Amino acid sequence: xxxxxxxxxxxxxxxxxxxxxxxxxxxxTTKDTYQSCCLPGYRYxxxxxxxxxxxxxxxxxxxxxxxxxxxxxxxxxPALRSSLHARYSTRDWHHANMVQLKGSEAxxxxxxxxxxxxxxxxxxKDQLTYLMQEDSRRSLGDRITNxxxxxxxxxxxxxxxxxxxxxxxxxxxxxxxxADALQGPLKTALECLYHREMRKGIDLVHDDVxxxxxxxxxxxxxxxxxxTKLAQKINQQLGINRVAQHALEQDLSDKNTACFIDExxxxxxxxxxxxxxxxxxxxxxGTVSNPETWAKFSEDNIKCxxxxxxxxxxxxxxxxxxxxxxxxxxxxxxxxxNLAFNNxxxxxxxxxxxLQAQLGKVLQEIFQTEDTIxxxxxxxxxxxxxxxxxxxxxxxxxxxxxxxxxxxxxQLQLVTEIYTTDDTLQTLKRRLQEARDTLQMLILNxxxxxxxxxxxxxxxxxxxxxxxxxKVFPSTPRLIGYA
Length: 483
Fold this sequence. Notes:
It is a single chain. The protein has helices spanning 30-33, 81-85, 90-196, 208-266, 291-397, 409-469, 476-479. It is mainly α. Residues 1-69 have low confidence and may be disordered.
């Protein structure tokens, strides 16, 4: 590289080829080469330059033949005199060199200052860029920490909600099982009422057993209705829980995606392979929330889930209380009905035994009455023979002749005997009729007793059959919903 001020054609060694300037291509001036730096205070830094700089004069082409062998310039012909008068003076030459040196020095000074300012600017901007990048990295780290916090809160709340939902599902199944378990006892109670309608006669009575059975049926139906309504409420609450669960899961999924994206952004650096230019991305604001609304969204989801869990817990407690109370109530009805059945069976059995005992006595009386009737008939028949004898005697004495028809003692005796015998016969006949009436009454009574005994036996059989049907009853665990 040549130093500033040396001519590009000067050579003091060897043969000089010519004293005139060779043909040069048009070049740019110093003003065009160095761009002016318009700094404050240095706006007119190049004002020292003359308006007309040193220009390269184009000299007509000349061959080597114009130079002689001694190396001296040839004699200027008159045709070139006009060009001699157009040359610059020595003073212009020195002035031009001085201007060139000052311009170069000023350009170098400006370039030095520009380089120093550029280095300082680059250092400042590098530091600023580094600090901004670190701030962004720190902000991403804080954001990831916040997301992790809300993720942990959402995960914990989701686990609690899932447990509560599972417990509520279990309570719902218990209610359904308890309602289904009551179907058997309800059917049994209705069948007992139906069978007891087959009682006959006076035994078709609205007794304590029937009252307890009706109460038991009403209690079973009321209990089923209450449990069914509570199961429906739990089903509605399960829907609310599923909505809250979906909101939590959606929020958690969004936060997982956001955390993954932020972690990916957090791990990016200047040497990452996945970085690229996305011009104009900073001008597009696609955000839909700020940190306050973002945190409030997750907080609202958690509060909604907590509210759903609280309602679920209340419904579970209500279901447990209902199951326990209704189970105890049903058992009380069952026990009281069974007790009424046992009392009624004992009463029917006692009545049946008394009727059977009375029937035995009636049968004995019938037998004795029949014997009495037979004896009375024999006695009447015997008295008829005596009456016949007395009447025959009296009739025979009535055929006595004339004065022999005397009212003597035999005559009076026969008349008295006839009257007495006839009165005896009438008495015996009346007693025989009474005996026959009594016999008919005893026979009717026997028939009534036998009918009552059959009625009691039928009632006893029905109640025993009902008790046999009621031997199978759901246990307490089944009544509270455990299969």
